[in-house]
Structures are given as C-alpha cells and as structure tokens.
Amino acid sequence: MSPPIPASKPDEKTRFGLRFKILVGLTLFNTVATILFSINHYYVEKQRVLQGLEDKLTAAARALPDMLPNGYLDRAVTAGAVSPAEYRQVVDKLNSYCNDVGLLYLYSYAHGDKGFYCTSTNGTDEEMKSGSFTPYWDFYDTAGPTIMDAWATNRPRADSAVADKWGRTYSVFLPMKTQAGTRYIAGADLAIAFVDRLLARSLEQSMLVGLASFVLFFVISFFLSTQFSRNISRLAAYTRELTAANFESKADSPLRQQIAAMPVRMKDEVGQLARSFLGMEDRLGAYLRELAETTAAKERFQNELRIAGEIQASMLPHDFAQASAAVRVNVHATMKPAKEAGGDLYDCFALDENHLFFVIGDVSDKGMPAALFMAVTITILRAVAKEALAQSPNEILTRTNELLIKQNSMYQFVTVFLGIIDVRTGSVVYSDGGHNRPYLRQGGQPARMLPRGGGIALGVMPEAVFRLHTLQLQPDDTLILYTDGVTEAIAADDSFYGEARLETLLSSLPPESLASRWVEAVMTSVDDFTRGHVQADDITVLAVHFMAAPAASVTT
C-alpha cells in the first residue's frame, strides 16, 4: 500500500476566494481595456479632427488666388509693386472670407533674397480697427522650418504648433505657382486655442464612452464570476475531502453527490470538468494501486541489477599480484560501468610460467544485454586461450568469433585487443579485433599509438581474419589499453576528453611508474574532466609495464 497523502484541513479558509480573484482579474482587465479603448478612441478622434482642420486650411489656401486680382501674384514679387489702396482692398476681402469660414489668417508669401515677404493677408478684428495688420512686403523674420521645408520640397506641409510673432497657430503652407510660373506660398492659420477646444471635447467624449463600457463590463463580470466560482468551490471542497480520505471515494458523501449531478445538470465546460474530475478520481485510485505494485517490482529489478553487476565484477580479476609476481611484467586494470552492469571487459592471467595473457574489450550497447554478452565473451576467451595457443592471439580471436556468432541472436558485437607477453624478454604478440588503438610509452619518449591492427569486431562476420603482430618492450616501457569510454568521456560543457588529452597525460608520467600508477592517473583525469556530467559510457583501462627488475624486488 502507498503511504497516505497529507491532506489540508476541511475547514481551511483561503485568504482570497476564487470569486474574488476572478472579479479582481476581470476588473483589472476591464480597467486596462477601458484605458486602451479611451486612448485609441481619443487618438482616432484627434486624427479625424486634425485631418478635418488640415483639409479646411488646405482648401482655403487653394482658394486664395481666386480672391486676388488678376495677375496680382505675378506682380507682387518686389517691394512697391502693389499700391497701399489695392493692398487694403485685398486685406478687406480676405478678412471677410476668414470671418465667414472661421479662419484666423489667410495669406501669401513671396520668396526673396533674405527669405519670405508678405504679399497678401487679412487681419483680426483688433488689427483691422487699429490698422496694425501685416503690411505689404513685410519680412517674415520668424519663419519656422515648416514653411522653409514646404518651399524647398515643393510639397504641402502642416504644423500643429507654429509659434511666431502672430502667436501659436495650427498652420498649413501650400507651395503654388501661377500660370505665368511665379512661385509663392499660400498659407492658412487657425488659433491653437480653437484646436485645443475641439480636442478637449473629443477627449471628454472618449472618457465618457470608456466609463460606460467599464460599468457595463463590471456588472457582467460580477454576475459571471459568482456563477462560475460557486461550482468550482464545490469541486475544491470535494478535493480536500477526497485527499483527507486518502483518495478513497465515498458514494454517500453529499459533496460527491453534488459533483456527480453537475454533468447532468450543466452542459457547459464546468459540467465537463466535473465529469473529468469523477473520471480522474477513478483512474487515480487505480493508478495508486498500480504504482504500489510497480514500485515494488522496480525495487526488485534494481536489486537484481545490482546483484548482476556484482556478479559481473566478480568475473574480472582484481588481484594482480599473482600475475605480476616474480617476473618483470607488472599489470593493473579497472572498470567503471556507466550503469549497474556494463559491457566492458578485461582479463589477465598466466598461460604458463613464461607467458602472460591480457585482453580488453567493449561490447556494443550498455546495461544488462551488454553485461550478458560480455560474460559470454570473457568465458569463451578464457577457455580458448588455455588451449595451448601461447603464440597465437589471432587464432584465439578467430575461434572466439566463430563461437560468438553461433549464439548471437541479438546481433551484438564486441571489439577486442588481445596480447600475450613473454615475461622473460618483454616480447609481445597481439591481435586486434576492431578495438581502440593502445598507447605505447617507450622510456622517456612521448606516448604514441600502435599501428592499426586491421581486424574487425567479433560477432559480426563469420570466418573473419585477424592478423598477428609483434612488439618488443624494453625495460620501463608501458602498454596502455583502454575503451572508448575514456576518449569519448563528456565534460559539463559537452566537450570530449579526446585522444590528444590522453596522449598528453601518458607522456607526462614518469616512465618507471608501475601499472597501477598509469591506470589511476587515467581514471583520475577522466573523473576530473567529466565532473558535472553524467557518465555516458563504461570506462576501462589496463596497463602492462615491463620492468627493469623482477616484480618481487620492486616496492609497489
């Protein structure tokens, strides 16, 4: 049985209920939406108002030439070209037009050497009474960049914030040309105060529309949140009741009866939620029962894997003193599986008093399938190696390959490097079954890889041919064998350990070091490199060191 799940108290009160949270959320949404709507509404209205004013000013500016005498704008290009009496008539006519259509100013400018000069205009009521309206050929000494840009680009320009000696205005400047080709600027102004009044009225309307929508949405939100939260609160209450009962359903529970009635009474999403809740309750009960059974089975399986790993480890040699005693060969090896059981293998034992057998291998795949294939492989290797084949490692691989293929229903394979060393002379005969190339450290020279052996992995192809190679070890030479779990070890930054790093490490060790020192150095280096990353593959290292003196006289 699974342990009871701690339950919250049935009468536990929440600080803020679902209804409150829904209402607050909808209110915040409503507030933001209202603000955005009001801003957008005001922006649209503002653009509409300004566009309407610009169209009005543009139409007035285009109508200006029709209000002037024929040829007037062609003549009004120098000082004194228009008499005061004629100019006064123009001012009066333009003033009458502006009063009719509600403009502040309607005017034209000619462009001279120094800038813009007034050629026609009207005046305000105060200016007309006092005679202070702008005279003919008055220099526009406060001309802003908008009118200059209109003249330079020959395109109409509007400016909502013109500030000059006539005050702040909303102005349009229209570059025009007479039939005779005389260029001039026609302009029209509205007082900013008038524009501000129109915009303020638009803003007020936008705020009223936004406020009305806010109130309406709030009322709707209040009603919907009340209806929705009532049924959700019942589901929450039954959840607490179910938890307190350790998920054991009680058919006579009033709350459960209410939940069971929801799918019948309600055809919306809440009813579907209640139906799903009841189905989840049934599945959860079944799941808890299955979980208890699965957990127990998993614990048994993990225990079996652990035992399998211990059995596998016991198949490998751990005491190398006998193999290295009273001879000039010192051997050491270790394996670190990535899981409870691994697919790497190594072995070393005396074939006779003069020959030492050593081997390293790597089975495809990982875990239990690889561990079983590894056990079969090492058993066959041991059996075949003891058939008086002291000088024939290639024949050992050939026979082992044929035996593995006969019982390889899972189509697995194993890479192998196998050697036999004469403990008196250091002469090595070896054969390669598609394994990583070992490193040879000769005295004080840098470590180097052995040439490729030319063999393929065992268990792949019947009647495969494995070549025989020879190697002569001198005193303090060391042969280092390893699996790809070393060079393909992964660091926390996803980089690989690599052959270059291994070669540098092996080249840095004292050549007289015993085999155990070589193995420990490689394992420590790989552990430091992979710190912070999960081990991805089995790691195995085997070292064979040929000493200057017999092992019995060497202190380890």
Count of strand segments? 15
Backbone structural class = alpha+beta
Question: Which consecutive residue ranges, at least 5 long each, have pLDDT under 50?
Answer: 1-10
CATH classification class of the domain at 316-553? Alpha Beta
CATH level-4 homologous superfamily of the domain at 316-553: PPM-type phosphatase domain
CATH topology of the domain at 316-553: Phosphatase 2c, domain 1
Number of helices: 14
Strand order of the largest sheet: 2-1-5-4-3
* Helix content bin: 40-55%
| 3D shape | elongated
Major beta sheet, specifics? 5 strands, antiparallel
Mean pLDDT: 83
In CATH, the architecture of the domain at 316-553 is 4-Layer Sandwich
Features:
14 helices; 556 residues; five-stranded antiparallel beta sheet; Beta-Lactamase; 19% strand; Phosphatase 2c, domain 1; 15 strands; 48% helix; alpha+beta; single chain
